Amino acid sequence: MYAGLGETISERAGVINLGTEGSMLVGALGGYVATSATGSPRLGVLGGAALGALLASVHAVLVVLRGANQFASGLALVFLAFGLTALYGAPYVSGTINFFQTWAIPGLSSIPLVGPVLFDHDPLTYLGYLAAPLLWWVLFRTRAGLIVRTAGERADALEVHGYSVVKVRCAAVAVGGALAGVGGAQISLALTQGTWYENVTAGRGFIAVALVIFAMWNPILVLAGSYLFGVALSLGSALQTQGIAVNQAILGALPFVLTLAILAILGKRTLLAAPDELLRVLDNSKTT
Amino acid sequence: MRIGRTRVGLLASIAAVGMALAACSSPATSSSPSGGTAPGQGATKVGIIAVGPKDDYGYNQAVFQGAQAIRKAYPNVEVIDAYSIPENDSAATTMEQMISDGATIIFATSYGHLQTALKVAKAHPDVVVVHQGGLIPTPIPANVGSYFGAVYEPVYLGGILAGAATTSDKLGYVYAIPIPQTLANINAFELGAQSVTPQSQTIAVSTPSQTNPWCDPPVQADKIAALLSQGVDVVTQHQDCTKTIIQATENAGKYTVGYHADASSLAPKGWLGGSEWNWGPLYVDIVKTAIDGKFTGSTYNANYRANMASGKNPFISSAYGPSVTAQTKALVDAATAKLKSGWTPFTGPLYKQDGTLIVPAGTSLTVDQIETMDYFVKGVVGTTK
């Protein structure tokens, strides 16, 4: 969810960041290490955000300042993050840390069906409920949001008005990386009860990138889409506990199959909602 | 010497080039400086590969402890252990690298390392290659073997602990993929629980993952939530890394039966006991047999399986947790005595999930039948598909 929101900002400003998976991974480790050092998962989230932003900044420098191919840069960063976190994360595999406990919202969580699905989570999930509409508001109702969106729609128009497209895009990519880092920290600090393990994000960052496309670059739909994935996966587990045969391979591939299916259905329609500058994906250095 | 992932990659690429050159100039068979003529004889270096990190509270941690035991028993033998080696070509390059570094005994310890290990063994007839847990088709080459313990024996004892502790009569089992070893474990666990609480059920859920079904903590988190919402009050698992599951169970105030390693520190309240590896004596004995030049034709030049009756099962029971009563311990002791006398949990009458008789009364399954098991017994909720 956070990774999807982060990618939304980045792409709204005109930069695709496939390195989101990498930002999540360093965020997961950064969150774990910071928590391990300070004892506070809240500071851990900050640590995760910082590392996520740092990795994304490398992408920003390469793509926005140097005009490098953004697909190559993003993928290279994923593998860099994988190698670095496996190496530097090894001492933390056996550790135990404080982690975010789930907190059932009194009353709401006891609503049948909906309650446990929506209101029995860790604090970061609830924060995400607020973050998505807030991000929507910032993007579509504030001047800062307008500037970011203009960088993604009509970069030259932004220059005409005296803003630096380069600065706006760098900032958007970094903030996007920070949010992806928070998403990674949520995995290591909340979801897994405080666990670091190499490649703990296991491709979830890539799903986030796809999610942004079929959520039409809209934060509210990103939130809804994240839920769709979560429910689809939990449904598989629920069926298993009933002893109902669910094919192993299909269950494992479900998030990716679901992604492909939705992309196939939407097809070219998503292009209409895409920020215009994204359509010029091979050259982000020039603004005219 | 311990090799990190990045160094392995570098060394592996150098090794690959080296091997290509060597193959041009000489026959490929004599690449290792062995002291004797028999495979592994006079070995001065031992190579060990494992699929995960050496401190995962699980399977790979147990391998590391085994490596330490070899170091202690043979201070003059260098043990090269490499961790987080995936079950693909990296395993081959890592093993080749170890051999070109002079290792003449190789332990390949993950289920998925088997095929690669057999290939490496074929290319180096003077190197002993043993695999942990695989079934090697006969005829078994003179330098190859597999070893494992009768894992289902202590797992059956863990089932007794679970059956005695449960009040909901629902036990949870998180497993990776439906391979025979795992199915035998789940069945043994349920049979152990039934021996105390006949109506108890074991709900078995798998952890399909595109990256690593043996350890994908977020997937584990999802499975454990599903089990707990079904009212499960004792949880056990067959995963490589065990921390997320154990902590989630403890956090929910439920009981844990351990597997692979002693993780009681993760569940100070809910830990009941369980089973763990004690590879040291077996690893050391395999190394000794090979160094003495006696590997070929030995018990290890085969599909070696040790059970409790032989007194050599490397899979042993873990220490009890605080809540286990004297009465329960007596039940476990009685079952242990039966196992030591050669009894197996898979003794008839046994029924499959759908109620069909699979083992008639008065007969029991052989080790081969257990290791090719493809069904759940009655009382297990889950599917092997």
Q: What composes the largest sheet of chain A?
A: 2 strands, antiparallel
Helical element count of chain B?
Answer: 11
Oligomer: heterodimer
Helix content of chain B: 25-40%
* Largest sheet report of chain B: 7 strands, parallel
Low-confidence stretches of chain B: 1-35
Query: Can you list the strand order of the major beta sheet of chain B?
Result: 1-3-2-4-5-6-12
Measure the end-to-end span of chain A: 33 Å
User: What's the total count of β strands of chain A?
Assistant: 2
Radius of gyration of chain B: 21 Å
Cross-sheet strand order for the largest sheet of chain A: 1-2
Order of helices and strands of chain A: HHHHEHEHHHHHHHH
What does this structure look like?
Chain A has 13 helices and 2 strands. Chain A has helices at residues 2-12, 20-38, 41-65, 70-89, 114-119, 123-141, 143-153, 155-160, 165-191, 204-214, 219-241, 248-266, 269-273, and strands at residues 103-104, 120-121. In chain A, strands 1-2 form a two-stranded antiparallel sheet. The mean pLDDT of chain A is 85. Chain B is built from 11 helices and 16 strands. In chain B, β14 and β15 form a beta hairpin. In chain B, the strands form 3 sheets. In chain B, strands 1-3-2-4-5-6-12 form a 7-stranded parallel β-sheet, with helices on both faces. Chains A and B meet through α4, α11 and α12 of A and β8, α7 and α8 of B.
List the helices and strands and how they pair.
The complex is a heterodimer of chains A (288) and B (385).
Chain A: H1 2-12, H2 20-38, H3 41-65, H4 70-89, E1 103-104, H5 114-119, E2 120-121, H6 123-141, H7 143-153, H8 155-160, H9 165-191, H10 204-214, H11 219-241, H12 248-266, H13 269-273
Antiparallel strand pairs in A: 1-2
Helix pairs in contact in A: 1-9, 1-10, 2-3, 2-4, 2-9, 2-10, 3-4, 3-9, 6-7, 6-11, 7-9, 10-11, 10-12, 11-12
Chain B: E1 2-3, H1 5-25, E2 45-49, H2 59-73, E3 78-82, H3 89-100, E4 105-108, H4 114-123, E5 128-132, E6 144-149, H5 152-165, E7 170-175, H6 180-196, E8 201-206, H7 217-229, E9 234-238, H8 243-251, E10 255-258, E11 271-277, H9 280-291, E12 303-306, E13 315-317, H10 326-340, E14 350-351, E15 357-359, H11 367-370, E16 380-381
Parallel strand pairs in B: 1-3, 2-3, 2-4, 4-5, 5-6, 6-12, 7-8, 7-9, 8-16, 9-10, 10-11
Antiparallel strand pairs in B: 11-13, 14-15
Helix pairs in contact in B: 1-3, 2-9, 3-4, 5-6, 5-10, 7-8
